Queue: 4 jobs
Job 1
Amino acid sequence: MSPPGATASVPGVPLWWRRLPRPLRLVLLCVLPGLVAVLVTVLCVRGVGSDVADQDARGAAVLRPGVVTYSAARPHIVPRDVWARGDGEANGTARTPPVPRYDDKVVAVFVHHTDSPNTYDCADAPRIIRYLAAGQTGNRDWDDIGYNFLVDRCGTIYEGRAGGVDRPVTGAHTQGFNHRTAGIAALGTFTAGVPVPRAMTDAIAALAAWKLGLAGIDPRATVRLTSSNSLSRYRAGTTARLPALAGHDDGYMTTCPGAALRARLPEIRRTAARLQGRP
């Protein structure tokens, strides 16, 4: 038996609790459950809030793409039927478009000039393109016009080589680098000192922005291309770093696209990048 006034030993009850006066223990027993409930609520709220914030942050990281895809709207492109249906087809001498060849994608464009007169009426552009096509398929015995696209001085874009403007058609425009590229030809001759129409450069920029955007390529970037022909600037099999928006002379020993048009390429690259929405 415990001495008078002593607190009975209760298993599991801390000594400090047994030493508290009975009235204080009664008060604490009444108040403590409420305090515990409040504390648990606070801890839960803080815990859930932290988890939600962390989850949101992780979600944003997951939802935010690692590589932002930039693209541009497709500009208006006049189909090849507009220029191909000329006198040749009327008298039965027009060639049937060849079976096109395709690559997996287009990662670069080469800009050319056609080395033809500049003082033409833009309404005559289809006739001029027919003349160019006749020279390439006749004198050079190519199966089709080599350029994928042509642009006149008024900024009108024409489909060139057959196969579909939105597809990666293998062209015949830059020896050694026809694969995974597109050729854009400016109608005219743009040697040093010759004015290059703003409508023409804007159209080239819009076309390049759209075409390169299909593969997520920045027009200001450089890309790796492998030469397929030792007559280019690089021996066959050599992998070269070339501008994604290049001049013909970047891949082949030539003065094309002319000094005046080449001088505009940096501006065309910047415009194309802006059209893709790039900073």
Job 2
Amino acid sequence: MPASTSRYAYLGPEATFTEAAARRIPALAGAALEPYSTVHTAVDAVRTGDVAGAVVPLENSVEGSVNTTLDELIRGAPVMIAAEHLLPVTFTLMARTGTTLTGVRRVITHPVAEAQCRAWLSKTLPDAVTAMGSSTAAAAESVSGGSPGVDGELYDAAIAAPIAAERYGLAVLADDIGEDKDALTRFVLITRPGRPPRSTGSDKTSLVAYIRDDHPGALLEILEQFATRGVNLTRIESRPTGNGMGRYCFVIDAEGHLNDARVGEALMGLRRVCADVRFLGSYARADGVRPPVGRGMSNADFRDAVEWLESLRSG
């Protein structure tokens, strides 16, 4: 089935941080966004061509990597990262219109949100009872409809992403109530493999390096391919390949673009020393940082070195 050019999946349900991130990715402006229940079903819809792409969380500045997403990148049919977005994780206390902060006695949210907002709740609503729901969006929907939760009780307010207040017509009683004010979640747009976007000068390249066997210096061999070419790594993490005990691969984010000579040569070096290398894409960095290029590591420097070598070979 050919992929739709206007339909994109995202990790649902509706009115969560993932939907908020998807709506902020420029490439998806005007596209139809559809929630999927799991990361696997969202990415699998990309693989089968049911959708043109999927937005899923990849890592959080507080909790680290989202392993379910990493495993989708490592295993199964290859997919590619086409874009990334950094979304501030801010939690909002919301309620039906007319509800006041002093009138809140029962709050519903998701366990992750509750952990982030526990200090605020203890200080501001010390007598309120907090219940846990399946998602922050479901909590907001429950409050909006005045419907009881799994415990059969009604809730006065919900803690959810700001987008949920707009989606379910709730009034904001307090904003940005999370304990970590600098929390960010990195979301990525997954597509089927193809030509990466054009280099911007502020780019990131992601890949998976599969070692040939478990031997002393295996990780060093990988790191040397980048270090000797002046390529900085922003992230490296080991994950099991799923092909037996003790078999691991490395998921890597590197500064630069596939079209940068230093990055291209690093990938060629990996190809020589690794059992396999899965290219996950080169794309614009969400933070806009333009990394410095060391002396002797520019595209012009690499071209000059190639021309010099060819002149020696030709006599």
Job 3
Amino acid sequence: MTTPISGTHYGLTAGDYHATIASVGASLRTLEHRGRPLVVPFDADEVRPAYRGATLAPWPNRVVDGRYAFDGVEQQLALTEPARGHALHGLATWLDFEPVDRSADAVTLAATIQAQEGYPHRIDVAVAFSLDEQGLHTTVTATNTGSSHAPWGTGPHPYLVAGEGRVDDWTLTLPADTVLTVTEDRLIPVGLEAVAGGGFDFRAPRPIADTFIDHAFTGLIRGEDGAATVTLRAPEGTGVEMTWDGACPWVQIHTADRDIPELDRLGLAVEPMTCPPDAFNSGSDLIVLEPGASTSAGWTIRAI
């Protein structure tokens, strides 16, 4: 049989949960609970649209103009967001990851980001997916196998689905005190602002309605276990939540606005991130991996 263009697929099952992982980009292709979708899926034999479910590395979000300096050397990345002129979502999203561990409810996929123009570092990336009665757990581990220290950031790109309807119909709880404002045209970071009393204040649950969001949030309010949780609920009471620990002090939220009506606002992108947009330039929460060193970050998606 011909391999689908989204790569080799790995089905995971545990209790009432089922997930499908696609090897290209170590992407979460489907996730269901009792047959109810928790993420916007994509077809096995289609080019993954809008980074759905992809693993973002070695940076999440954007590097403005694709340019940055590291160790005093100016670097120029390929511009993978041509409309805005930025390098978007890293270098791993189109790599074909290989399995290194596999069971009925888990799979670990691995790939190497090779040293290249704009990112002269070699990083081994392992993405571990596992299902249990608490949902889908994902851990991304990076190991610097090169000879120089390297800038690093990561995050996932799922579009969460609460139930029937679209983003406008759902209620969001986002435990964040601060939003990173951006320019309207190119989404270039401007500065941090408190959300209190503004349009991005979802610390108490409220309907998203027609609010446009494509912003990073920080100042996360965490539970006693140190975890931050974004909750999305539909009017009928179903929902989905995403939880992560202190490895990700940021989360990008996007209402998936599209010009094509049938694709517009199908799901809410919730992207825990180890660093904010354009961290390769700002240095904010940027991880610097020494040769031989490793770092990990993880998150969980579960049904309500």
Job 4
Amino acid sequence: MEAGPARRFVEQHHYSGSWPAVRMAFGMQLLTAAPGPGEPDGGRLVGVLALGVPMARAVLTRVFPSLEPYRASVELSRLVLLDEVPSNGESWMCAASFALAAGRGVRGVVAYSDPHPRVRVTPQGREVVTPGHVGHVYAAQDFAYLGRSRARRLVVLPDGTVLTDRAAMKVRRDESGHQGVERRLRVLGARPREEGEPGGRWLEEALEAIGAGRLDHGGNHLYARSIGARRTRVTVAPTAYPAPKRHTEALSMHYSW
């Protein structure tokens, strides 16, 4: 499907509110309902699956050493369905999208699931944006479970989104795109940055002023599978483990505000 409707849908309904670098996107539509403004013809959009480009090439080459990254191997960047979609909708969406992607030359898919709950601060108090998930939908789709990514400490903004290390570096070094990061923080209550003011100093003050939190993140769960008619010929390099069955992260133990 076209990127415009898919992007708007994801930015509205995904807890991150963001649209990553996407190579192809697939939409699920409710055929009995009229499409909304800006939606594709054929019915109202109720789900989007996006396959895209991870931040590091090694994310793909470590898992699929025989596949060309970004063309034959990709990341499942977003999977967003409305609550009204039946419980088997995610599995159906994955199966249908993978069949279409295989027809375009994709042979391997990696996917991450974030088990940590995310919260945002509202006038009424803290509100859970997402409870976190361990990737049951991927296990059901015959993905291999490859363990967890590295643990790290995240900067969580009051709206529940994360300020990535890359975004923070843009401000500290006055790199291209720093204005967008600064606008994002001003919307949350930070003061404007003065002309000539060092980015690092302004950023630390801004994060404190808006009440940014820190999350000790134990790492995302990593899954991978090959797709297409000849999927058995594709090697998934890392060792597979039993997939996790339930959450082990507790919200109160990891956030500090």
